[in-house]
Amino acid sequence: MQNTDPLKPGYNFDAHLVAGLTPIIEGDELDFRIERPNGMKGYIINFTSKGEGSIFSGENEFKVRAGDILLFPPSAAHLYQRSADSASWFHRWVYFRPRAFWNDWLTWPTEVNGVYVTQGLPLSVTQPLEELFIDIEYTAKSDLPYRNDLSINLLEQLLIRCKTVQPDVVTKPIDPRVIEAMNYMTQNLNQDFTLEDVAAHACLSPSRLGHLFRDEMKMTITQWRDDQRISRAKQLLVTTHYSVNHIGRIVGYSDPLYFSRVFKRKAGVSPKLYREQIT
Ligand code: FCB
C-alpha cells in the first residue's frame, strides 16, 4: 500500500505543492537519513527551525542550523539527516513544481553539490520567512476556498523574499548625504544652484560630494540634475500648454538654446517634437 505520510519513505510527491515540518529527535521514528540520490520531480525549499542537520557526507558535508535555508532543484540529491552533534533537527519544507516565470528566483549564488544554500541571515529576516513556511503549510492543508492558489501565492512570496536577501541582489542603502543633495536639487530645480551650494547643503566639500555621488549613483551630479530637469520638462510639455521657453525656465534653464540642446541629447528629439509626438 502506498504511504500517505510525506515524512516517511515511499510517499508519492505527485502534487504541485506539499508542505510540512519534519521534527527529528534523536532515537525517534523520524531519526533516519533521507536518501533520494536521484533528486525529486519538483523543487524543495528547506528551512531549519531548530537543532542541526547534516547535509551530504564526506567532502561535501555541511551543517545547517536555525534560520538556514536550502533550495534543492529537481536534479539535486537529497541526502540529509540530523547532525550527530545535535539531539534534534526540526526543519520545515515545501515541495513544489515551479511555474516557468519563477526561474529567476530559483538560483542563488552559493551552491554546494547542486543545492543552493543561504546561511547567516539575521533573525529579523529569518523570522518572517519561517512564518511564511508555516502559513504555506497551514493554507495548503486548510479547507479554504482557493487554498491552492493562496498557498502558491505565499510560496511565490517566500521565493521572492529569499531571492532578495541574496548577496548579489541586496541593494545597499544610498548614503544619507547623497539623499540630502538630491532632495536639495529637486526642491531647487528651477534655481541656478552651483555644486558648492549643493555640497554646503550636504555638509561636504564639493569634491568629496562629487566622488561620493558618483560612487553611489554611478553618474555625476550634473548628469543627475539634468535627468531630473528633463524628466520634469517632459511632464510639463505633455500636461500643460506653457511655451517651450517657459518650461525651460521652470526647470532651471534660462538659456532656451541650451535647454533645447540638453533636451535633445537626453530625449532624442527636440522639446517641440516631443510634445507633438506625445500629445
Ligand atoms: C520529508 C522530509 C523532508 C522533505 C520532504 C519532501 O520526508 O522529511 O525533509 O525532504 O520529505
Automatic annotation (TrEMBL):
- Domain HTH araC/xylS-type, by residue range, is 179-277
Return any one Pfam family short name.
HTH_18
Record carries keyword Transcription regulation = yes
**What's the superkingdom here?**
Bacteria
Keywords (A to Z) from UniProt: Activator, DNA-binding, Transcription, Transcription regulation
Record keyword Kinase present: no
Q: Name one GO molecular function term.
A: sequence-specific DNA binding
* Annotated PANTHER family: ARABINOSE OPERON REGULATORY PROTEIN (PTHR43280:SF25), ARAC-FAMILY TRANSCRIPTIONAL REGULATOR (PTHR43280)
What is the protein name for this chain?
Arabinose operon transcriptional regulator AraC
What organism does the UniProt record list as the source?
Vibrio eleionomae
The organism's taxonomy opens as:
Bacteria, Pseudomonadati, Pseudomonadota, Gammaproteobacteria, Vibrionales
